[in-house]
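WARN retry 2 of 3 for item q-0093 after timeout on previous attempt; input resubmitted unchanged.
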Amino acid sequence: MTLAVWLLACAGAPKESAAPAGAAAVAVAGPDVAAVVGVPVTLDGSASVGVSFVWDLGDGTIVDGAVATHTYAEPGAVQAVLTVTGEDGVTRSDAAAVTVVLPAAAVPPVWSSTIVVDGGGAVWAAVPEAGHVAVVDPSAWTSVFVAVCGEPRTVAVDGATLWVACTDALVGVDVAARAVTTEVPLPPGARGYGVVARGGEVWLSMEGRGSLLRWDGAAAEEVPIGVEPRALAWLPDGRLVVSRFRSDPNAASLYVLDGVALMLPYDTSPDSDTTTGGVPNLIDALAVTPDGGTLLAPAHHANVRRGSYLSGVPLDHQTSVRAVMSWVDVGAGVERDRKQFDESGRASAVAPSPSGDALYVVHAGAELLTAVDPWSGDLRGTVREIGAGATGVAVAAGGETVFVHAWLSREVRGYDVTNLSAGAPLVGSASTVAVEPLAADVLAGKRLFWTSADPRVTDSGYIACAHCHPDGRDDGLTWDFTDRGEGLRNTTSLEGRAGTAMGPVHWTGNFDEVQDFENDMRLHFAGAGFLSDADWAECSDTLGPAKAGRSEDLDALAAYAASLDQTPPSPFPGDAVGAGLFDTLGCVTCHPPPLYTDSDLATFVRHDVGTVGDGSGQRLGGPLDGFDTPTLLGAWATGPWLHDGRAATIRDAIVAHAEHGTDDPAALDALAAFVEGL
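OK item q-0093 returned
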């Protein structure tokens, strides 16, 4: 007999254990609950069965009994767990989700947006190129169109009136009649953008003039505010917050009318797989939580302190730009948190749910809708392929539908967000145009210009042309492109250049056609590119054989760039004395009218006017012999100035020329005033 057999024999046959007497517990925590801070809420577990009941309410509070009434002191999403003990002594548990929000403000906050829902549930969207607003009925997904102005940008509802911010006017539309009732012309060079309205009072941002327009229904008043005011948010306490569109390289600014500006400083955190350092930039949308206590500022992080010259580490497609959103405590006047979104390009707009229990962020380049926890910043869900150029987002009054303005897809789309864990299905869409206002190739090129979702442009959704050239303009920043065979380069505007109508592209004229951006996509954006391998092998040299005609998509991109043939009208009057000095001091030699540049595709003229220096780098990886002459048309809107952004004013840029002709302060002021007026 083995030891094992002997032990078994001694132990005897196995015995069945007796089951505990009594009924088993049944735990039913009841439905999920929405609660408000400071207001008692009841959790009903009365359908449970057992001899004892204990609630753990998720905030450290323990309550006995099947039904618990509790007042939460802090907002957030918690689990209330009911533990029931049965007659058999065994416990069972069930949980109910409790979403606790802050009380809604007595005066609802409002903010500017490209899309808004009126009191009757209709959705209004501004379509700049079409000159109209589209009105969508989401019950039938049909559209009508109301012509309003040359270039509508954002919309706001105030009772029976829809207000539209246009580049040159403020327009009021009767919501019921869907007809224009008011038109307020803006001053010259206004470049209107954001609009908010409440109680018959309307505010509009005038980016070109650095001011706001206030309209009370009878008279207009211009109010100075700061550089490049763009998005607006009107807080419940009456304060008006205005975003500076293009940030200072050290901090983003949120102006507060009759208050202290809020600063969003440069993030100096080291780069990682999912985050980068950077400054929030291109803030053209704001939103406010329903309680009025938190301002939300979506943007993108511009990592302008990284580069081979500046930091010894070259830029790459993952570390240049990244979507970001700031949470600002409006009471304390400080940024409370900043979330970075990996592989999402740029955060272009945000809207909270009506109760404030979720935030919905759209990413125009990556064509994404992300649902974000308002307290932790964690992602709750993601919807892909929401359409091209998603510049606006709004939520239905009941919170069940999120509307996305897919501007360049020419659609308003609705998504069911009642159960994010199961996805957010598309419930309908409606067109925002009856007839496409752009030529087919220009529209196709504009979509490519805005997208970071196309793997031919970039890898993992990071970079779009529009991330550094918003609206075809410039981002106001200087980048370290030393690893590209260049140097410190201030982003140039494409406005008015009509592609290559003013000569080659970039500060050193290193591209002779817009199609050469294939090189940036392949070499610096980690994109696959649009050319075949055979064509790429033949024409990869940017000054070699032409890329034009080899790719329909690249040609469309060039067609869009060529359509940017207008510079923004200047808000400055110019200066007659300065005009004379411009000629007599010899400025006209390099900046001859009417284009105010001697740049030429045939001769590739470059100059060193005394600004080449440390950090200027190379041209195409070789010696730097000077810079392509920038046009002065629209120069007033393209600061900072010079190739490395060293000049904070146009006057500083003139003085930086080794031979600027005069040291007379009055003459320099007049000369700068003339250039500002171009």
